[in-house]
Amino acid sequence: MAIKELLTDLSCKNAVAEGSKIRKLHDGQGLYLWVYEDGRKYWRLRYKIHDKEKSLSLGVYPVVGLKQARQLAQAERVKLSNNIDPSTDRQINKQKAKQAAADSFEAIAREWYTKQTHAWAATHSRDVSRRLEVNVFPYIGMYPISTIEAPQLLNMIRIIEHRGSYDLAHRILGVCGQVFRYSIATGRCKRDPAADLRGALTPHKKKNQAAVKPEELPELLRAITTYESKGGRQTQLALQLLALTFVRTNELIGALWEEFDLNNALWIVPATRMKMRNEHAVPLTRQTIDILTELKSIAGESRYLLPGRNPNKPISNNTLLFTLYRLGYKGKMTGHGFRAVASTALNESGLFSPDAIERQLAHGERNEVRGAYNRAEYLPERKRIMTWWSDHLEALEKGAEVIPLFVKSV
Prior knowledge:
The chain is an alpha+beta fold. 48% of the residues lie in helices and 10% in strands. A hairpin with a 4-residue loop joins strand 5 and strand 6. The relative contact order is 0.07.
C-alpha cells in the first residue's frame, strides 16, 4: 500500500504559519516541514532510537525541495535500520571534516608561514604569500596534507611550467617542501613528496641581475648626471645614492628620515626592512651626505627619503629600474646591479677584507655562529670601504685616474 503523500510542491510553496509561531506540516515517516511565522521554512526528520525521541535538520526550503528532502530522509532511515543514530553520525562527520580542514595543505602552509615571517623581509613575505595563494592553494590547498602524493604535486608544478615559468616552478616546489617538512615535524604527515620530484622538473638557468662591466661604469655614472633634464632631480639623486651605498633597491626606496644620523654620518636600516632581518649600518660619506641634504629639501615634511606624488608614500619600486631603461640600460643594468659592481670592485681592489665587504653588502652568513653579527662589526673598515667607493665613483664620473686611498692592513 502506497504511503499517502501529505505534501506537494505547491503546498510547500504556499504554506504559512496561520497565526502560530511554528506550524509543522507532516509528510509521513517522521518528515516534517516546519513553517515559522516570519516565513522561514525548515525540513526536519523525527525518529526514535534506543527508546529516545530525536529530530534532525535536513535543510532550508526552498533550497532543499520536497523531492530532495524525501531522499535525505530516506538516507537517514537507512542508517537507523543499521542501528546508527543519524545525529551522532552527523556530529562525527562534522568533526572529521573539521579535522580534515585543520590538516589541509592550506591550513598547515598558513601555520608554517606565520611562524616564518618574523625572520623574513616584508618583500620576501609578500612573494611567498602570493606564490602560495596563486599557484598552490587553488590546486592542492583543500586536500589533507597526508594524502598528497608526488604525482598530484607534479601536476600542479606542470601548470606553472606550461607558462614557461621554470624558475618559479623550482621556487614553489621548494616552498612546498618546507611546508611538508614542517608537517612531518608537527605530526600531520609522514613524508615529503616534494623530495620525490628531484629531476622531474624542467631545468632552468638562473639569470643574474644585469650589471654593467667595470669599463662601462664611468659612462653610466655620467649618464645618470644628465637625468635631471629627462625625469627630475629627486630621481637622479636617488640613483646616485643607490650607486654610492649599494643597498638593495627596496631598502633605499622605503628609507625614512628617522633612520639617518647625519651628525655621526651613519644610516641604520632597521631589521624589519632588511632581507635577512638583521639591522644594517651604512657609513655615510661626504658625497652621500651632500645628496641627502639636497633630498631633504626636496622631501619637505615627508617622513620618506624618496616620497612619491603622495608624500605619505615612497616612490614606486620600479621608478629606479625604469630610469635606467630611459637612460638606455634596459637589459644591461638594474638597481641590484650596483651591488654586483661594488662587490667586484671592492674585492678586486685588494684593499679590504672579504668579511668586511660581505658585511657591508649585508649578505647573510650561513654559519650561524659567524652570522651573529653586531651592526657595528667591522665598522671602522667599512667606513674606509664606503669612503674609497664614493671617491672611486666620483673619480670615474670625472674621468680621472683612480688611485687607492688606503693600504690593506695585515
